[in-house]
Amino acid sequence: MKPSDWIDPFAGAKGPPPRRLWPFMRWSLAGSEMALGVASVVSIFAGVVEVMAALILGKVVDAALGSAPDQIFSDQSGVLLFSLLFFLVLRPLIFGANSYLQSIVVAPNVFNLVLSRLHRYTLGQAVTFFDDDFAGRIAQKEMQTARALTDSVVEIVQTVLFALASVAGAVLMLGTVDIRIALGLVVWIVGYLLMIRYFMPRIRSLSKSRASARAMVTGQVVDTVTNIKTVKLFAHADFEDRAALGAMDSFRDTSLDFGRLSVTFRFWLMTIAGVLPVLLVGGALWYWSLGLITAGDIAATGAVALRLAQMTGWVSFTLMGLYANVGEVEDGMRTLTPAHTLLDAPDATELTVQQGAITLDDLGFAYGRRSGGVEHLNLSIAPGEKLGIVGASGAGKSTFVALLLRLYDAEQGRILIDGTDIRDVTQESLRRNIGLVTQETAMFNRSALDNIRYGRPDATQADVERAAQQAEAHEFILKMQDHKGRTGYDAHLGERGVKLSGGQRQRIALARAILKDAPILILDEATSALDSEVEASIQTALERVMEGKTVLAIAHRLSTLSSMDRIVVMDQGRLVEIGSHADLLAKDGLYARYWNRQSGGFIGYDDGTEAAQ
């Protein structure tokens, strides 16, 4: 196995992420212990080697002073040869190995390991998690947390352990020169640590605030860009600009606070770093003047003092970055680690639909409120039945569909498919058995081929084209070309399918559902964006697709539902009428009023109708 493969960057995690920092870091990094252990040992060895360089330099100076100029190479050949091998072979090998482990083994793999685990966990959240936050902010938190945690690991291994080994080695080395010089270094270390203890918690706190403000800027900007057509159509560029500037101003304020603290920290850092060479070299000169140490000892002490002084700035800035990264990790944890609210039962089975019978048993859901949604729905849908669903906006139609797909768990009652409660099967298997076409068609910024194949990832090109032809999408797909010159089924559709018209997006969504060929099919205003001519041309294809399937079709245009086996009418979250098109007209109830009031095929609103979400 190559060292670059010591960490599996896409390994799964055990259980949900903890909500406390150190357990969260262990959860994120599980599986990388061996690689991190090797990298840590090499980093510590590199720190020791760094101090040895000063010690060897001192020995060379003593050797030079202890020999006549014309005899140094013969008298001191052993010292000089060892020094040569140390500086030209051992030191480059150790530092090269250290760099290789950090840059090749640890950093790229840890980043992907953490990001893949966070992303996988986020994908398991219920839709309510995404409803309550900016999409851009969630994505920002995933990237921010993975990057900050990776940087923290690299900083601890590459800098903190290296520095600790260097300092420990320096104390031991100076102890061999004169114990009093070593004690001077220990006193300086205590002062340095007290300064770090004062500043770092403050840096960590301000870093969390800055990361949160940055994420709000990202969320605001992404929200605006995602809805740019709406912004343009309503001429609200100034409004969106003000909203973004407000978020940016908050980010600026937190950045200024962080900057002020950083400037203060750097001032005291440079001051305490300047004390070190004065303290150590001054002490060494004093003891040399007393004849207690050699000139080589002064050289070694000076080299150590200068290297540690330089390292002080490097280590301090690294620690500042480390604490800032820890703050960003904690900020990301608040967003990304809430427990999943919609879980499969521990003994959940895979759903296999044999017939497609659907039963609603006293179903109720109000989004956690006392009203809205649906209530007391009782309905049996026979295998292969074609059921139309009608109701004014807010009547509960979409809530019914969301509950059937188990995007939410019912607060009351249950839904059965072929006699099995949908809460007793896995969510993935449930949704694999349901095809869906909605009026808000979701497209990925991928090729037309990939978007249609999303319905069945193992489908061949021929399968995809056949589904597109049935959905009347094949011809316009062949004419497409994106900005990179890709054409036809290879052309990308733009974010959320922005390059397509509403009707084109709907036809690709239909092709996706046709390709999926699930035993249960939901059509939620599936042809609302199509003109009458195109709708008529694909009606035959839709009828073929619906053969042998249980179909639930929601439409405001009642003419599209007149051939359904039964139609249910919903009002304020309840089922108020059930029957065939002819039966409901004969009842002269709400459905008949909708039918009579339609103009151009759309349902009007009754006065006083309450919207149910």
UniProtKB/TrEMBL annotation:
Part of an ABC transporter complex. Transmembrane domains (TMD) form a pore in the inner membrane and the ATP-binding domain (NBD) is responsible for energy generation. This is ATP-binding cassette, subfamily B. PROSITE patterns: ABC_TM1F (PS50929), ABC_TRANSPORTER_1 (PS00211), ABC_TRANSPORTER_2 (PS50893). SMART domains: AAA. Residues 358-597 form the ABC transporter domain. It comes from Puniceibacterium sediminis. It is found in: Cell membrane. The chain crosses the membrane at residues 34-57, 77-94, 153-175, 181-200, 267-288. GO terms for molecular function: ABC-type oligopeptide transporter activity; ATP binding; ATP hydrolysis activity.
